[in-house]
From TrEMBL:
Region Disordered, residue ranges: 30-50
Signal peptide: 1-33
Listed name of the protein: Uncharacterized protein
Record key words, sorted: Signal
Length: 268
């Protein structure tokens, strides 16, 4: 009798093992059920987005948050994040009483864009939640931007590092205290390169270029193409800014910032 009971328990435990494995594979939120954020459906759970610590100065905030669902009195699509329920909240400050000191933060991805050609960037931009207070701090063009850390691969200079930075143009007053429409960084605002690459190409902080022009100048020497290290949404070091960003677009992928993480949405 003891032998039969022991065998029955052993068989029950053995049969339960594959059942547990099946449940884990289909339970929402499990590693097998979730996508990996790159849209290819390979089933591995990866989220390579976060604050790039190397590029952070002071004590800024770049936080995946719920909302914002304002400002008060605003209704319709502009009263909520354009995708899902959340966004990337950004807070940077200017600290008074010091030799000018402003905070800086980059929230980005140091893995998934590595080695991709800068010339392959065709669609870039985001939605932003701008406030009247931010305009009072630094004007209507006081907005976060997009930064790509790159290897410029310029034959005229041995540097292997530069930041390719988008500076948005001022938003219309109709986009204040609410979510903006999509801002197309390939058509809106200007771009520049930091360091020696900016000097060689002429697309520097003083003489900024269009998106098409800066890409052309990077590849004008006919050598190896410029390649990407990282991609990020960033703010600083200039004016105080407190707001949010959502729907970051890089080529065919749209990155939806949610409190639970960054979701990748494929776009046409």
């Amino acid at each position: 009798m003891k032998t039969r009971i022991g065998m029955r328990r052993w068989l029950t435990a053995l049969l339960a093992v594959p059942l547990v494995a099946v449940i884990a594979a289909v339970t929402p939120g499990s590693a097998s059920a979730e996508g990996d954020g790159d849209g290819d459906g390979d089933g591995r759970n990866r989220d390579h987005w976060g604050v790039i610590t190397r590029n952070t100065i002071g004590s800024p905030v770049a936080d995946l948050r719920n909302g914002p669902f304002g400002s008060f009195g605003v209704t319709g699509p502009q009263a909520r994040p354009p995708y899902g329920q959340g966004s990337l909240g950004i807070h940077v400050a200017v600290i008074s009483g010091t030799t000018p000191f402003a905070e800086k933060v980059d929230f980005g991805n140091e893995v998934d864009f590595f080695g991709k050609p800068v010339s392959g960037l065709t669609r870039v931009g985001f939605h932003v939640f701008q406030t009247g207070e931010n305009i009072s701090y630094g004007g209507a063009a006081n907005l976060p931007g997009i930064r790509f850390e790159i290897d410029p691969n310029l034959a005229a200079n041995a540097t292997t590092y530069s930041s390719l930075v988008w500076v948005p143009a001022a938003l219309p007053s109709t986009s204040t205290n609410r979510w903006s429409p999509f801002i197309d960084a390939t058509q809106n605002g200007t771009w520049f390169l930091t360091g020696a690459a900016g000097t060689v190409t002429g697309c520097n902080l003083t003489t900024q270029c269009s998106f098409a022009d800066v890409k052309t100048r990077l590849d004008a020497d006919g050598g190896d193409p410029a390649t990407i290290y990282t991609a990020a949404v960033g703010k600083g070091r200039d004016f105080m800014w407190i707001g949010a960003v959502d729907g970051l677009r890089i080529n065919e992928n749209l990155y939806d910032f949610e409190p639970s993480g960054v979701r990748t949405r494929r776009t046409p």
